[in-house]
Write a structure and sequence with these properties.
The structure holds two protein chains of two kinds. In chain A, 55% of the residues lie in helices and 17% in strands. Chain A is an alpha+beta fold. By secondary structure, chain B is α/β, with parallel strands linked by helices. In chain B, 36% of the residues lie in helices and 28% in strands. In chain B, a hairpin with a 2-residue loop joins strand 9 and strand 10. The model of chain B has no long low-confidence stretch (mean pLDDT 86). Classes of the chains: A alpha+beta, B alpha/beta.
């Protein structure tokens, strides 16, 4: 009987049932995205980062393009070495009409093309590579881009003085994974001898040797042994895999999506609670009727609980089904490429359970009212007694203020507490908004206008006005939060792109590179030689973190930093061999000027004093500035990059550089093109935040409208009575519009400061992900989002044609 | 007349809203015998409905005691009270008695189903009651598809379905026009006379109170007659 009653109750309210199930399903999908997104992005970044070396452990490569690599024979005698794969890697231009296209040629010795990783062939036959040295494997992406098929040929042009055009034949096309996971520039796999001929008129060269160590062997010790071999002393011997860097990159990309997903999930759950709260009067009457015909409290509760459980279960099932699709879509949006991923059943189950349980609890919350009242109170819909609401709100506001003080005053408290505080401040807005509505109501009842008085009485006595203000306060705050996040991240990113749009990166340099020659190229207004590579930084109280070394004092000329330490002190510190850190390192780990840090470059560790602190919002601590001289002295590193500042079309200038220095195989690319994948991914993240902001605003509006629809049904008699009492239809419409205005204005007044507080908490909560940003708040975006939502809500009585439904009915 | 089935002694009830406390019942002593039809008569705000809800165990008194079917309500558990409502006592109020998403028939058998009776068993029990009340042709309709008078008869059918000893009625004709009100009152008289069910009915209408075998008049929280 309990089950049958629960089922009938669900069927009786199809809109409520559908809305709740949909909200729970979206929440489950969002929980799944939250739980899985970072892992999937990590897998993607891992695949891209390991595309070149597969499961190899150590890479031996040139320190500059001009170095000749040593033979691989001595490696076989090193203890701990399991296998060695010598390869050649060089850049060439695809012959053809239209825009120049770089290709990356990777050559392997006969039969070794799959020695680093397997190739998933989708067309052709990889064994045909044995037919001739001009046979190559390309990716599906490249085949599609250039319209190549099996047995098609293409030719490439070497970029050295001795280089020439060489033909290749496609014998196999592979999936965009493995060697081709990054594929930017497009990768061509073939024979070392043939690839070398692009550069040289004869002979085979190897410029990258990959070493796999035996299982259980200490990779760093094997690396040290190899580095100690005289033949490799002038080369870079480095460990291939840097998991810390991969984690950081994955976290940076996934954190905004995770947080925005959490916001949507929470709003969905809040929506479920509000849908059920809106119907609480009806549920009270239902509970009373059941009690009067002999239903026990336990049984009535069981029926409501079963109803909620059925909704939660349906939402969880549908959510689980759509979660994978939404997840794939979000991944596609962020990474701009379809990637295969495996669904972690345990995480999907956890998301379904989390969504179902939170929705279950949220839908039962309004029942507190049902069971704290007597059957008679429920039957007549008696209002809440006393000042419990006022006291509860005051207590919550007080607790939130204390918690905010603890967060901001206690060292190290920012992080998880910030996330809790973000929820608390939004809850405060929801609970406080009704009191502002009542304040408006008190003011309104002293008016002479009947419409204003009616609106005032409704604001004071009707729960629909106060409840709407709570719904709008939550929705508006979160909407403002997301639009602010979108506006700020987009603006920071725009600054970044405008800063980099005139830069060209020139790599694959020879050791005798002459910067002045590059400066002479038409359109180049400056050239800065620097080391630009990765290192691992650590310090007391700071976990190891992979950063980019900006190895030149001229980095200060290239990037617009904010100076926490005066610029002249920073310049002097760099000259003294000190390092300059980002302000986020100080904020997150307490490492400050005068402290010491360890820098690990390819396994060589040196200690440096921190000479100053600068700040760049987008780089967010993922760099350290050291002078090129210091790097040379400490690590034997020579400059590997020239940053050119160009006027006019940077693409044209880059082409001119390649053309002018064709004999040196320089790889010259506009900086934004070099980081195209990262910039595109970030842009996509911002677009996703924008989409979520719009979705969340629409969701908040929909919940507010649902509240209006559900609750207005109960006040039909009141409207009829007001018309009977002489209020005109226009007057009634004006009073309803004004009532909406009270709710929207109350929500707006609270949402604006609360969204600023929530933004502060959100920024502090990002510390959990190792991210630090200073406080930023875009009041204009917040105001715009709030005003749009307010105006849309105020206009509901007019847009929805409430006036048409006004009529005098028998009471 | 048989034994006493309801007895109230010194019942007081007060409500506090904000800083203001108002005493609605100021000490009521009242009893009902088996098979009796008692009308509680009074003006709006006299406290008659509050008294009825307290007598039925739906609300609790601030002071005093109520003994229903020999059991002191203050010491009866929620389960026992619910069981009494399923088997021995029924309640009908002014309007909106029915669960809107259940049909008339489902509303009628609701207390029986809650008491664990099978659907077939319920059908046998209520068919006679439905004929008695003349609603047997409207059983598949939802409450919204019934007139006010039909809805009240469905509510009475539900009250009778459990074959109770006592039915509490709160202005059962309050939402009906005069003719339908008269029909319901005649029906109540028949229920009392032919089935021997005791009725305690709250009304402000002297004409309706005239159908009762005994009248209790309440004014300003006290029984005056």
């Amino acid at each position: 009987m309990t089950f049958a009653l629960a089922l009938r109750s669900l069927k009786a309210k199809p809109l409520r049932t559908l809305a709740s199930v949909a909200a729970i399903a979206v929440a489950v999908a969002m929980f799944f995205c939250m739980f899985s997104f970072e892992g999937a992005v990590y897998d993607y970044v891992y695949a891209v980062e390991t595309a070149d070396f597969g499961d190899s452990d150590i890479i031996i490569s040139q320190k500059s393009g001009g170095d000749r690599i040593a033979p691989d024979d001595p490696l076989y005698d090193v203890e701990g070495v399991e296998s060695v794969t010598a390869t050649v890697s060089l850049y060439a231009l695809l012959d053809g009409e239209g825009e120049e296209e770089y290709l990356r040629l990777r050559g392997f010795d006969g039969g070794e093309v799959e020695s680093l990783r397997d190739i998933d062939v989708v067309a052709g036959d990889i064994s045909r590579m044995a037919e001739n040295t001009d046979c190559v494997v390309i990716s599906e992406r490249m085949a599609e881009r250039f319209g190549l098929g099996i047995d098609d040929s293409f030719s490439v042009r070497g970029m050295t003085a001795t280089g020439r055009s060489v033909h290749f034949y496609v014998v196999a096309i592979a999936e965009n994974s493995g060697y081709f996971a990054s594929d930017s520039p497009y990768t061509v796999l073939g024979y070392s001898s043939r690839m070398s001929s692009v550069m040289l008129s004869g002979g085979t060269v190897h410029n990258e040797i990959f070493v796999k160590v035996t299982e259980g062997a200490d990779i760093s010790k094997v690396r040290e042994r190899i580095a100690a071999i005289p033949e490799y002393s002038a080369l870079t011997v480095a460990e291939c895999l840097d998991l810390g860097y991969i984690s950081t990159r994955a976290r940076n990309l996934s954190a905004p999506v995770t947080i925005a997903g959490a916001a949507v999930a929470l709003l969905c759950i809040a929506g479920v609670a509000l849908v059920f709260t809106s119907g609480v009067r009806e549920r009270r009457a239902y509970a009373a009727k059941l009690a009067l015909v002999g239903g026990t409290k336990k049984r009535i509760f069981a029926m409501f609980a079963l109803e909620s459980a059925l909704l939660a279960a349906a939402g969880a099932v549908i959510g689980s089904l759509v979660a994978v699709g939404i997840f794939a879509l979000m991944l596609y949006i962020v990474l701009s490429s379809a990637m295969s991923f495996s669904v972690n059943a345990a995480l999907l189950f956890a998301a379904a359970v989390t969504g179902a349980l939170t929705a279950f609890a949220a839908s039962l919350y309004p029942l507190v009212r049902v069971f704290s009242s007597t059957a008679r109170e429920n039957l007549v819909g008696a209002p809440e007694k006393g000042r419990a609401g006022l006291f509860a709100t005051a207590a919550l506001v007080l607790a939130t203020l204390v918690s905010l003080c603890v967060e901001n005053l206690l060292p190290g408290a920012k992080g998880a507490l910030s996330a809790v505080n973000m929820v608390l401040v939004i809850a405060c807005a929801a609970m406080a908004a009704p009191f502002i509505v009542k304040g408006f109501g008190r003011l309104a009842i002293s008016s002479r206008s009947p419409s204003v008085i009616v609106a005032g009485v409704s604001a004071l006595r009707e729960r629909r006005a106060t409840r709407a203000s709570s719904i709008l306060a939550v929705g508006m705050t979160m909407s403002m939060l997301l639009f602010t996040a979108w506006s700020l991240t987009t603006s920071v990113f725009s600054d970044f792109t405008s800063e980099f749009e005139d830069m060209i990166l020139v790599t694959n340099l020879s050791s005798d590179v002459d910067v002045s020659e590059l400066e002479e190229v038409e359109g180049v207004r400056g050239a800065h030689l620097m080391v630009w590579r990765q290192a691992v930084i650590s310090a007391d109280g700071m976990e190891e973190k992979t950063v980019n070394i900006l190895g030149s004092a001229t980095a200060l000329e290239l990037v617009e930093f904010e100076y926490a330490t005066p610029r002249e002190e920073v310049v002097a510190a760099l000259a003294e061999g000190k390092v300059i850190l980002d302000g986020s390192v100080r904020e997150l780990y307490g490492v400050d000027k005068g402290d010491f840090v360890l820098l690990d470059v390819d396994g060589e560790i040196r200690r440096f004093e921190v000479g100053g602190i600068v700040r760049h919002n987008l780089f967010n601590g993922s760099y350290v500035i050291v002078s090129a001289e210091t790097l040379g002295e400490s690590f034997g590193l020579s400059a590997d990059t020239v940053v050119l500042l160009a006027d006019g079309d940077v693409g044209d200038v880059a082409r001119e550089v390649r053309s002018r220095f064709a004999d040196r195989n320089y790889y010259a690319l506009p900086a934004l093109a070099a980081y195209e994948w990262d910039t595109r991914a970030l842009e996509n993240v911002f677009d996703l935040i924008a989409a979520l902001a719009f979705m969340l605003t629409a969701l908040a509006y929909a919940v507010a409208i649902a509240n209006v629809v559900v609750v207005r049904a109960y006040s039909e008699r009141t409207r009829s009575t007001l018309l009977c009492a002489g209020l005109s239809r226009n007057g009634l419409l004006a009073s309803e519009t004004l009532e909406h205005a009270f709710s929207a204005t109350s929500a707006f007044l609270l949402a604006l400061p609360v969204s600023a507080l929530a933004t502060m908490c959100l920024i502090n909560a990002l510390r959990m992900f190792g991210l630090y940003f200073g406080f930023m708040f875009d009041a204009a975006s917040a105001v715009a989002a709030g005003l749009v939502l307010s105006a849309a809500y105020i206009a509901v009585p007019v847009i929805a044609g409430f006036k048409r439904g006004y009529g005098m009915r028998r009471n | 007349m048989g034994s006493r089935i309801l007895e109230a002694k010194g019942v007081k009830k007060s409500y506090t809203v904000g800083d203001v406390t108002s005493e609605v019942l100021k000490g009521i002593d009242m009893s009902v015998e088996e098979g009796e039809f008692v009308a509680v008569l009074g003006e709006s705000g006299s406290g008659k409905s509050t008294l009825l809800y307290i007598l039925a165990g739906i609300d609790s008194p601030t002071e005093g005691s109520v003994k229903l079917l020999g059991r002191e309500l203050s010491s009866v558990s929620d389960e026992e009270l619910a069981a009494m409502r399923r088997r021995e006592v029924s309640f009908v109020y002014q309007f909106d008695n029915l669960v809107p998403h259940l049909t008339a028939y489902e509303n009628i058998i609701l207390p029986l189903r809650l008491d664990g009776k099978k659907a077939k068993e319920c059908a046998d029990i209520v068919s006679d009651v439905c004929r008695f009340l003349g609603i047997h042709e409207r059983l598949n309709n939802l409450p919204a598809q019934l007139s006010g008078g039909e809805q009240q008869r469905v509510a009475l059918a539900r009250a009778l379905a459990t074959d109770p000893k006592l039915i509490f009625l709160d202005e059962p004709t309050g939402s009906l026009d005069r003719e339908r009100g008269r029909q319901v009152m005649e029906l109540l008289e028949r229920i009392n006379r032919e089935r021997g069910v005791a009725l305690v009915m709250v009304t402000h209408s002297a004409a309706h109170a005239a159908y009762a075998s005994r009248k209790v008049e309440i004014e300003d929280g006290l029984i005056v007659k």
